[in-house]
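Quick one: structure tokens for this chain, please?
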Amino acid sequence: MTANRACVIGGVDTHGRSHHAAVIDSAGRVLGSAEFEANAAGYRRLLAWMRRHGELAQIGVEGTGTYGAGLTRHLLAEGVPVVEVDRPNRRLRRQRGKSDPIDAEAAARAVLAGTATVPPKDRGGIVESIRALRTARSGAVKARGAALNALKAMIVSAPAELRAALDHLHAVPLVTTCAALRPDQQRLSDPLQATKAALRSLARRIVALDAEITELDAALAQLVHRAAPHTISLLAIGVDHAGQLLVTAGERPERLRSEAAFAHLCGVAPVPASSGQTQRHRLHRGGDRAANRALHLAVVVRLRCCPRTRAYVERRTQEGLSKPEIMRCLKRYLAREVFHTLSADLQELYGLDGI
């Protein structure tokens, strides 16, 4: 009985239809491995099965924001400590092979070794709402771009009289004009009438997507100003950038352990690339590339309108740094500024005394 109540660690490899779980003890011995359905009943059985092996210290879960989101919510609601686990790297997979039991065991061992320590994102608050709306907006923007490109491409091959009437128009008047076309529905076998019908369909799709994007922008502006009032007030940090940085940081304030960890999360932590007498840093290719892009665009705006930023660039240029290296430095400094303001916003949002 005493052995059964020893502390154990769980690992879960998540999929769309099922999850594979493994349990190891504090010495790394595998105590069991089993598969469960990815639904509410399966989550309950998985947790009960793990608890039969001993006192659960932690559970490492792959894909806490995708296939493992439902399981993660269930485990957190049951008071079980959950750790977010990255997928095993390719070198280890080449050595050990790939299977669900192997991946579940690897998740548990990552927790035991201390290589996985980050708590998962909370999917039950305002930041998750921002993420969902941003996903919808991104899809609408891509669809609008595709529709506009299709509209312009169709004009290139349109009958001569139609092309002559539309070819000189810019995007906004072009969409307005095409949306007002009146094709003869009884003569769609005529290429001219069929092209008019197609152009009108594409134009009206663009108009509808414009309205959808405007509606989503208004909703996002309201939520982002509520969740991150300090961050949104920073120079060159707009609703889009602040929303992305909130989504990257996640709902749980304890995920932002330090300024350096946040910079690494955003892919702007310095990576040494020095050799001999050459002392330099290179591009960090890890982290959230969307957050990296948000910081990059903010730095570009500051280069245009911030005297302090331009003075910094001049000084570092005289020191021999290239423009890409200077941009990396500026993104790192901006990440520090964002970290402190974002931390303050999350503290106020959740009524915490500190992170």
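Strands lie at 7-14, 18-25, 30-37, 55-62, 82-85, 271-272, 281-282.
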